[in-house]
Amino acid sequence: MRIRVSGTHFPLETLGPGRRLGIWLQGCPLACPGCMSRHTWDAESGESVDVEALLELWRSALGRGAAGMTVSGGEPLAQPAALAELLRGAARLRTAWTRPGTTDDGLPADLLVYTGYEESELDTSRRTALASADAVVTGRFRVAEPTGLVWRGSANQRLTPRTGLGRVRYAPHLDREADGPAVQIVVESAQASDGPAGPLSVRLLGVPRRGELLYFERWLRERGLRLRERSWRP
Ligand code: SF4
């Protein structure tokens, strides 16, 4: 089955416990004001890949000690059948591929999904898609409701464990305030192997605290660096 993806990254350290495989799906119909990922809204953009290719990344991440997978977006539930297949396959593989002793709590790798839908909006098809998720963060991003809660962008968003593994792994984090870096910065070059240097692409992975994006822009400007496009600006 094909799935449309905005990007992937390992190790992701700012969206869930431990070092994780991050998968950002493409397409979001919810259009929250203040969203930092407007580049993920267009359902025709990004890259169409086979779910099996993402599971291959998952195998590789588990072999390198991944504590879990985080699926975000975009809106993962905009592709419910493909998301279900991805999570089902990931749950099956983790048993065989999680390296003993690589997670702090000795538990298998977990599956965390971010959705902008509220719990009350999870109809049968969306619940089926989330059947293999160990924990879910639900709710629109609301720019006027900042929060210090770890891994959440606004105070209305709920982190809800859905399995036994999820309940054990996420219990210490449900009401925990963030105490480390909220954002991971990844810089990628578009340079072809033998061609001229292309523009740099800077990816901010995580949930920035209020004002951090403006601070980041100013910090770059003061060092003579200009952002040509910003995914958080219309
Ligand atoms: S914050 Fe999430 S749910 Fe809201 S528009 Fe952005 S990608 Fe979509």
From TrEMBL:
Pfam families reported in the protein's UniProt record: Fer4_12 (PF13353)
| Record key words, sorted | 4Fe-4S, Iron, Iron-sulfur, Metal-binding, S-adenosyl-L-methionine
- Does the keyword section mention tRNA processing? no
InterPro entries, alphabetized: Aldolase_TIM (IPR013785), Organic_radical-activating (IPR034457), rSAM (IPR007197), rSAM_sf (IPR058240)
Spell out the CDD domains in the cross-references. Answer: Radical_SAM
Q: Which cofactor does it need?
A: [4Fe-4S] cluster
Q: Record's PANTHER family?
A: ANAEROBIC RIBONUCLEOSIDE-TRIPHOSPHATE REDUCTASE-ACTIVATING PROTEIN, PYRUVATE FORMATE-LYASE-ACTIVATING ENZYME
- This one is known as 4Fe-4S single cluster domain-containing protein
Q: Please tell me the species this chain comes from.
A: Streptomyces sanglieri
Organism phylogeny: Bacteria, Bacillati, Actinomycetota, Actinomycetes, Kitasatosporales
